[in-house]
């Protein structure tokens, strides 16, 4: 008997898949290694958060949050020039990193790869804000470190079809 | 290989720069790189500009990459120009759908210049 879709999604090793996806994206697109560990991103400073929505077999979101310096460094790695501030290029870059992490993560599960779509990125900047999501089916929250910078990435599953 | 003009279609300007860089690192001689931030913009551009290669994202607002490809073929714009999709969508079903819509190649993000070289250069060799 075929394994139900719900089981195939719920029992997938989401955290290790996320770690692999993050490592691939940072290495291939930015040329830096990014590994789990380190402190969470401080909410006292201005931070930038990108959100990619999931829809289809799973609904939910992937979020990527970092502070200004980390965002500037990521944009520099991608475009070759360090922007002076959180401008449109930086927001675009962070949105794309989140997009690629979300896509690489879902691609590691055959059900999600085929049956789950991604939204275009939404990017939020500011200080002292929290993201609130309804009671999820599951969520994965990971802190990562690349060079001296911290990045927090989350996968939140609101529901499975 | 002679110099070519390429069109890169992606709603992210950062990604368009990365794709152009990867094409050059892959050894392509580009005499012109056109950019479009949407399928609509790309179709409009192709009515007046000649290119020898098109690379397109799939997930874009207004008109996604697959619909852009279908419109490209239906309007017979750039009929002999190879189209390579560059996208985060990675399943075999997505690849199949892109090929059925008329794409000649498919590159998954994140990618390396080597992967771009492997997928794109053979499409530009003379028959």
List its traits:
heterodimer; A: 161 residues; alpha+beta; Chemotaxis protein chec; 7 strands; globular; B: 127 residues; alpha/beta; Rossmann fold; 5-stranded parallel sheet; 5 helices; 42% helix
CATH architecture of chain A, please? 3-Layer(aba) Sandwich
Average of per-residue pLDDT values of chain B? 93
What summary fits the major beta sheet of chain B? 5 strands, parallel
Report low-confidence residues of chain B grouped into runs of 5 or more.
none
What level of helicity do the residues of chain A show? 25-40%
Work out the largest interface and the residue count of each chain.
A-B, 28 and 24 residues
Tally the helices of chain B: what do you get?
5
Oligomer: heterodimer
Helix/sheet category of chain A: alpha+beta
Query: Would you give the CATH topology of chain B?
Result: Rossmann fold
The CATH architecture of chain B is 3-Layer(aba) Sandwich
CATH class category of chain A: Alpha Beta
Describe the structure.
The complex is a heterodimer of chains A (about 160) and B (about 130). By secondary structure, chain A is α+β, with helices and mostly antiparallel strands. Chain A is built from 5 helices and 7 strands. In chain A, strands 1, 2, 3, 4, 5, 6 and 7 form a 7-stranded antiparallel β-sheet that branches. In chain A, helix 3 (about 70-80) crosses helix 4 (about 90-105). The longest helix of chain A is centred in the middle third of the chain and has 20 residues, at about 90-105. The two termini of chain A are about 20 Å apart. Chain B has one domain: Response regulator (Rossmann fold, 3-Layer(aba) Sandwich). Chain B has 5 helices and 5 strands; from the N terminus they run βαβαβαβαβα. In chain B, strand 1 (about 5-10), helix 1 and strand 2 (about 30-35) form a beta-alpha-beta unit. Chains A and B meet through helix 2, helix 3, helix 4 and helix 5 of A and helix 1 and helix 4 of B.
């Amino acid at each position: 008997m075929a394994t139900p879709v719900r089981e195939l999604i719920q029992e997938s090793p989401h955290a290790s898949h996320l770690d692999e996806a993050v490592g691939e994206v940072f290495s291939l697109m930015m040329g830096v290694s990014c590994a789990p560990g380190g402190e969470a991103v401080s909410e006292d400073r201005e931070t930038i958060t990108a959100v990619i929505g999931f829809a289809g077999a799973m609904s939910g979101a992937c979020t990527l949050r970092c502070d200004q310096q980390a965002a500037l460094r990521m944009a520099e790695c991608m475009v070759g020039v360090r922007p002076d501030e959180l401008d449109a290029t930086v927001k675009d870059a962070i949105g794309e990193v989140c997009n690629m992490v979300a896509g690489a993560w879902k691609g590691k599960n055959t059900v999600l790869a085929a049956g789950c779509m991604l939204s275009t990125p939404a990017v939020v900047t500011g200080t002292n804000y929290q993201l609130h999501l309804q009671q999820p089916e599951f969520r994965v929250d990971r802190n990562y470190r690349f060079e001296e910078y911290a990045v927090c990435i989350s996968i939140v599953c609101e529901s499975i079809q | 290989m002679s110099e070519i003009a390429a069109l890169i279609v992606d709603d992210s300007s950062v990604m368009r720069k990365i794709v152009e860089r990867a094409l050059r690192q892959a050894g392509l001689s580009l005499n012109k790189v056109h950019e479009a931030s949407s399928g609509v913009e790309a179709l409009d551009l192709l009515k007046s500009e000649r290119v020898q290669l098109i690379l397109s994202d799939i997930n874009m607002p207004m008109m996604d990459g697959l619909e852009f490809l279908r419109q490209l073929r239906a309007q017979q714009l750039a009929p002999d120009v190879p189209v390579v999709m560059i996208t985060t969508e990675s399943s075999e079903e997505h690849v199949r759908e892109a090929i059925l819509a008329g794409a000649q190649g498919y590159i998954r993000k994140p990618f390396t210049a080597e992967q771009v070289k492997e997928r794109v250069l053979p499409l530009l060799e003379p028959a």
